[in-house]
Specification:
7 helices, 13-stranded parallel beta sheet, single chain
Length: about 650
């Protein structure tokens, strides 16, 4: 079918041809049918695109694309003029509430399950003010607008460490608002800029490209700049709208976009409201944990399965400057692929805090593949929470985060292979059933059991629930990784439980058995059915890892290579903008022990699901592609770490 064309000087009463283009993407979305392509031309479009229908299959998609070589911007904000001086460098403006309609971001608050505020602390709002594209900070009085406090450091709540503020000079650009029946008055400190001459925008719309109905499948969104959405807090027990997302559908492709300035979440592959919508914080009758369990069954009742939900692709996007997550998703992320994205500056403003913040934060990432992403300058890089089964985290580059990878209350099988995890807090394993293969672990490994929260596991490659278990810890495999030592104080504040549980290396597994037979022999038959298993860590398999700079091995590891104190390994990530280089210096004459590529047959079965380590199609998993794409020979021997070709001396390899 002919393409539907949109230009900034078109008309929505036109035919949508190249000679008679439409004016809005929204009008094109109402006209588009399966197989159509909507071509949007150069310019700025301020609208929330809500597709009226989806495609019919992967071959009969509806595609929305920026015209080749043209810069197309779609914003959820509106420009605001008419500012009046209010003393000093502060200006004020009154905005009629008709601009916002039924959704006023200056009224709507950042709140919900697992959003955490100090007792009595005022809530933040979904609004934002932008000066020439830079977002301001919300304060809670006019006095604070006139006398803003610069923040040079801030507490990272998870690690307990005080860390430098990202762009501290921006923290004095602040706003405050009051809303009455007819209008919204905003005060903002522009520090010498004239807001009537500069570009000043405010959030108006909740989303930028997001359907308001479910099951609009097989849609592609390609090549846009998408910005400025007043997205709400998105925990796993709520509706999870993003700046862009499918809203409970199947088969979307979101690719080659620049996505930025979502108040909370940029790309949502999440759940919808009927399966729960912040009931714990609203009702106060049951914990969020219980409502999250219920949401899994509620989702099954409305068709949460491979045939109807998930199988999305999020690739080659740059996602930046978002308050909660770059990519979020509970349930709706199943069977999806997230690859080749550059995700950074996530949750660094730290205007609000909660337990659902990361560059990528997924629940129930069943058979989801997270590969070759670059994630840095985030409070947490990747957080996989609940039902991490069939999930693979492969060939990713994580650095300069407060924490890199957190896997929580899951039972596997999941695989983490050929990644660079270079931040001071590299890996947090609050789960079981994982396989960590050929990674560079530059910081700490923290282990923690969770005996008080039983979570589901599934029939392999399915959303069907097979059972529940608590996390006693273990059932992990660590093969061919390169660990670097360091100071735990650089990862976590001294004195806290996280600090005590963190090590450089794998010595945290020292009390675990190494075989199923040893595990069973350690059970006390005099105890009751479940009591004999309580507190008993599961067996682990560790072999062929290399420990440098003081990192310590599991005491019963097979063939560990522990380097001498004089054999210091130096690792630097050189971030040069569009390119990143991994610089590794190995002492001259040092040879790292080699091992063959790992496949699923060597990894056995995850204990509770009794499931093999497989590809999503059920074939035997092979972890044989290194960080830069080199395919390892099945019969070859390769050094520990993410690079197949790692030699003594100074090596400099482009990894992005």
């Amino acid at each position: 079918m002919p393409d539907i064309h949109v230009t900034v000087d078109g008309s929505d009463s036109a035919q949508g041809t190249p000679d008679a283009p439409l004016r809005t993407i929204s009008r094109a979305a109402r006209l588009a049918r399966p197989g159509d392509t909507v071509v949007v031309h150069e310019g700025e479009y301020r609208e929330w695109v809500r597709p009226a229908r989806g495609g019919l299959s992967d071959e009969r998609r509806i595609t929305y694309t920026a015209a080749p070589g043209e810069h197309v911007v779609v914003k959820g904000s509106e420009r605001v003029t008419g500012w009046e001086p209010d003393g000093g460098t502060v200006w004020r403006v009154r905005i009629p509430n008709t601009l916002f309609g039924e959704f006023n971001p200056f009224v709507e608050r950042v709140e919900g399950d697992w959003a955490i505020y100090e007792p009595g602390a005022p809530r933040k709002h979904l609004a934002d003010v932008y000066l020439d594209g830079r977002s301001f900070y919300e304060v809670h009085s006019r006095a604070e607008v006139h006398d803003p406090v610069r923040r040079d450091a801030v507490l990272d709540v998870w690690t307990g460490r005080t860390v430098p503020t990202h762009e501290p000079e921006q923290t004095v650009f602040v706003w405050y608002a009051e809303v009455d029946e007819d209008g919204t008055t905003v005060w903002a400190n522009f520090h010498g800029a004239d807001p009537n001459d500069a570009l000043v925008e405010v959030n108006v719309r909740r989303s930028v490209f997001y359907p308001d109905r479910h099951h609009l499948d097989w849609i592609t969104v390609r090549g846009f700049e998408l910005a400025h959405a007043a997205t709400p807090w998105a925990p796993p027990t709520a509706d999870q709208p993003g700046l862009i997302g499918p809203n409970w559908a199947k088969g979307w492709i979101i690719e080659d976009n620049l996505i930025h300035d979502a108040k909370c979440s940029a790309v949502s592959l999440g759940k919808e409201a009927s399966t729960g919508d912040n009931y714990s914080s609203q009702r106060g009758d049951k914990p969020g944990y219980q409502y999250q369990l219920e949401s899994v069954f509620a989702a099954r009742h409305i068709g949460w399965d491979r045939e109807h939900i998930g199988s999305h692709v999020v690739r080659r996007n740059t996602i930046v400057d978002c308050g909660q997550t770059g990519v979020v998703g509970h349930l709706g992320c199943v069977f999806s692929t997230i690859e080749d994205n550059h995700i950074h500056r996530i949750a660094l403003k730290r205007e609000f805090f909660g337990h659902e913040i990361a560059g990528i934060k997924l629940h129930a990432a069943i058979d989801t593949q997270i590969r070759h992403n670059r994630i840095h300058d985030a409070s947490l890089g990747i957080w996989l929470d609940w039902q991490t089964q069939g999930t693979r985290v492969s060939r990713n580059l994580l650095y300069d985060n407060n924490r890199d990878l957190f896997v929580e209350v899951s039972h596997g099988p999941y695989v983490v292979d050929h990644n660079v995890l270079a931040s001071a807090a590299s890996v947090e394993v609050v789960a079981q059933g994982g396989a960590y293969v050929s990674n560079l672990v530059g910081g700490t490994v923290r282990l923690e059991p969770v005996p008080d929260r039983s979570t589901p596991y599934h029939v392999p490659h399915s959303t069907q629930v097979a059972g529940y278990a608590v996390v006693e810890g273990g059932d992990d495999r660590w093969v061919g990784n390169l660990f670097l030592g360091g100071d735990v104080d650089d990862a976590y504040a001294p004195g806290g439980g996280f600090h005590r549980a963190a090590r450089h290396g794998t010595a945290g597994y020292d009390e675990h058995p190494t075989t199923s037979e040893e595990y069973r022999d350690g059970l006390d038959p005099r105890l009751g059915d479940h009591a004999r298993y309580r507190g008993r860590p599961l067996p682990v398999q560790l072999r062929d890892n290399v420990y440098a700079n003081g990192a310590e091995p599991f005491r019963r590891e097979v063939r560990p290579q522990v380097l001498e104190a004089d054999d210091e390994v130096q690792v630097t990530l050189a971030d040069e903008g569009d390119e990143v280089f991994l610089e590794i210096t190995l002492p001259e004459g040092l040879e790292l022990d080699g091992a063959s590529p790992v496949d699923g047959a060597a990894l056995g079965f995850a204990h509770f699901p009794d499931a093999a380590f497989e590809h999503p199609d059920g074939s035997v998993l092979r972890a044989d592609v290194d960080l830069v794409g080199t395919v390892k020979s099945r019969d070859g021997s390769y050094p520990a770490g993410p690079l197949a070709d790692l030699r003594a001396g100074l090596g400099r390899v482009r990894v992005w």
